[in-house]
Amino acid sequence: MLELEPVIRLSVFAVVLVAMALLERGFPRRPQRLSWRRWPSNLGLVALSSGLLRLLAPAGAVGVALWAESRGLGLFPALGLPFWVAAPLAVVLLDLLIYAQHRVFHAVPLLWRLHRVHHADPELDASSGLRFHPVEILLSLGIKAAAVVALGAPPEAVLAFEVLLNATSMFNHANVAIPGWLDRPLRWVLVTPDMHRIHHSEIREETDSDFGFCLSWWDRLFGTYRAEPRLGQLGMVIGVEGWREDAEQRLDRLLAQPFRRGG
User: Fold this and answer.
1) Number of domains composing the chain
2) CB neighbours of 186 closer than 8 A, spacing ≥ 6?
3) pLDDT for position 152
4) What is the pLDDT, as a whole number, of residue 260?
5) Single GO cellular component annotation (predicted)?
6) Sites in the chain below the pLDDT cut of 50
7) How far apart are alpha carbons 198 and 215 in whole angstroms?
8) Rounded to two decimals, what is the model's pTM?
9) Got the DSSP string for 84-125?
10) Alpha-carbon distance 132 to 3, whole Å?
């Protein structure tokens, strides 16, 4: 399976992105006006980040896991945990790591300037789940790699986590209307679009809530869960003041944004 990593990741990415785009068109949650202008830049960011990762760290987190496994490094091998315990535990703990990382990127001003590129999207849809500055992506890889070595996470679990994280990011940013009878039970386990959309509100206390990307447990456990935005799902304003203009959605502006004043 691991030798097919690029095929698996690209296939899941394409299927989920197309599925979310079709659902957004058929069952939109909020009206949008800038979708066709934003998508090229948002997809351009993920293309640049992917190319940079393949150039600087071609093996990625899975390669780090293979390296650690070949040397018997990490907590799980030291404890002698069987694969069936280590694999799901690794996925859960890596998801907790992403939750913690997300909170740090909001709390530290320098890191927020990088992460602000993601939040400055004036509308929210599946492409927003791919809109991250390449420097943030590189920093995130370094954090994940350190955690993978410390845990001794199985390479298969790391691949599963990476695929799951990418897919759920597109899902929970999607502009899809999910009926309440389904959303309410679903968000006890997964971060749903209505839950994560609150995190993209311009109101800072709402921005600093609902940090989860995949599992919704962490927000409930650590007191950062918010059920609804103050102005409602249709009334809330998305984005960051000063960065919503059409011109700011150009790829060159997004790349330069962390190094410019404002926000």
Assistant:
1) 1
2) 178, 192
3) 98
4) 85
5) membrane
6) none
7) 16
8) 0.94
9) HHHHHHHHHHHHHHHHHHHHHHHHSHHHHHHHHHHHT-SS-S
10) 27
